[in-house]
Design brief:
Blueprint: E1 4-5, E2 8-9, H1 11-44, H2 49-55, H3 63-73, H4 79-103, H5 115-131, H6 134-167, E3 170-171, H7 173-179, H8 186-196, H9 200-210, H10 212-223, H11 227-230, H12 238-255, H13 261-264, E4 296-297, H14 310-321, H15 327-346, H16 352-373, H17 378-400, H18 402-407, H19 409-434
Antiparallel strand pairs: 1-2, 3-4
Length: 451
Amino acid sequence: MLSRIKGRTTPAAWREPRAILWATAGVATLGFLIILEIFARRYAGIPGPLTEQAKETIFAPKPGPLYAGLALMMVVLTWRQRFVAVGAAIGIDVVFVLVRWAVDAEAADGHSFGNGALWVMLGYAVIAVTRRSGRERVLLLKGVGLGLLLAAGRKTGDIWLIITAKTRPTVLDQYVATADQALGNPSWLVGRILQATDPIGTHLLGLVYAQLAVAAVVVALYQLRNVGVEGRFPRHHLVRTFLVIGLLGPGIYMLFPVVGPVFAYGPGASGTGGVQWAVANLWPHTPPAVTAPHPMTYDGITPRNCMPSLHTAWATAIFIHTRKGPRILRYAGTFWLIATLGATLGFGYHYGTDLIAGVVFALTIEVALRSIDRGGDRSGVQFVAYGTAVFAALLVSYRYLPTQMAGHPWLFGPLLILAMASVIHRYVRITGLWEPKAAPAPQPDPRPELV
């Protein structure tokens, strides 16, 4: 059977590659989760993401990720089906809560309900396989997969952070802090500003930092609002970028373990770290002196999750994907990016160098995904190569040139900003070329003059 008729591609010609792509992505994701499960048990002595997700079918889970996943799954449903799904999830949760209360089972703080959302998603997976066929089955399975991936992504990220702490006993904070001198120690500056605005500034930025995933779900729901009506997902959306950032980022943590200024140069936070592990108790009032950096031992529970700043990368992705939304969404995306940058620095979780790497990381992944959708567009491949080279150059310079960077801030500070700006400029240019151009409105034929 011919796949092309008179130069036009029939549905069979594009369905097969798309189906292969989705099948490959599914197998790769499952393989990654299995490998992470084995790695977590063997090297960190903890259950992996598959075990943790399976436990939440019975034990009290944290509700946020599961109900966010359910919300994403429901974009493929009709409004009637959405009400049924939400009602079923709440009803199942009520039953679980009553049973736990009856048997006097204790639940961890903040882990009271959420089983219902997971059971509903699993139920729709069964419905897709047994009661649907063709495009309806594929669409429903995509929705379920998206919801479960979001829920499992949180588990995967948490386990990755534990693995970084247990397998990387030494950290490279002294190198990054020294290189950060080229930028003027922004974490120390913003940290003092945030302390001066306490408690208003602290509470506001703390809320923004903690609810980044909520903002992402809101933007994703806007982008996917027409999936149920159109019967297909848009070619590209925020969830894809968000998940890939979370998938690849922890791998960089393993190569470049850094805990952050509040830990390496302060008392720690969130119950981890401490002055006994720090170089000195300097953050945020006394910038560190320029000395020869060395790897330093740190505790076995604080995540090495600074380089690059994934919060910055995710906030950048949110900003990018709100540019085509309504005005209020664009304003919200801009606010979330600025507030996230302030929070990452002001709470001492990141150095300025981390943020620069995070922006480059996010833009490179964004273009890579869009380039794949365009069949490996040449300009997209060139951008990905350039972004990867800039990102690698940043990490190499932080590791091997920190003293030189601190000694010549007038040179290396602008170079770091220019490197990031060059990636931003190329991103704006290439995505501008990819945007469809509006056809000019037809002009009426000129009327002949009356004689």
